[in-house]
Amino acid sequence: NAGVTQTPKFRVLKTGQSMTLLCAQDMNHEYMYWYRQDPGMGLRLIHYSVGEGTTAKGEVPDGYNVSRLKKQNFLLGLESAAPSQTSVYFCASSYLQGAEAFFGQGTRLTVV
Amino acid sequence: EDKVVQSPLSLVVHEGDTVTLNCSYEVTNFRSLLWYKQEKKAPTFLFMLTSSGIEKKSGRLSSILDKKELFSILNITATQTGDSAVYLCAPFDFGNEKLTFGTGTRLTIIP
User: Fold this and answer.
1) Cβ contacts of A66 within 8 Å, gap of 6 or more
2) For residue A35, which residues of chain B lie inside 8 Å, CB to CB?
3) B68-83 residue pLDDT tens
């Protein structure tokens, strides 16, 4: 049982480059989330989805885009990476909002 | 704006001690509060609390919620080195559909 899988696990980007982080869950969850975690800031919600084909902005959405074309996948895109986007990114999914969320192992992204 | 304050920020105790971690919150439309344990990677779920005064328990860990005073506590008894981690609390606001995470309490257990 894989749960929530994120790829890649590590990435170094140059300023201005683009990339996509992939999140896949095999629990048939409706709700999926992307968070970033920075020292002293806690986990902050970037974007989320309440079902296939839906997306919504979270607390810190600027500079990111997302897509949920299939229920099991939630993609996070950075169109033009900036050093301020250096962070650890976590994807999560849940069967209900406000209920237990299962997290992926994280992606450590460095923008130089 | 939803707010979460966890205290203490860090705690160092000896193996076998009992610890109490605190989480106070301000949420406009409260539905639930979740506790997570984060070691080196992904946060792992501990408890979800929705009702005041009802203790949730799992082994040496327990948690309780006070919706009137807007706080929750997480207790760990007979601590072990494997309990060393950052503990996060997160209330859920059903108005803005958001879990707001605190910055966590870093717990270190000395053998």
Assistant:
1) A34, A46, A47, A49, A55, A74, A75, A76, A77
2) 101
3) 999 999 999 999 999 9
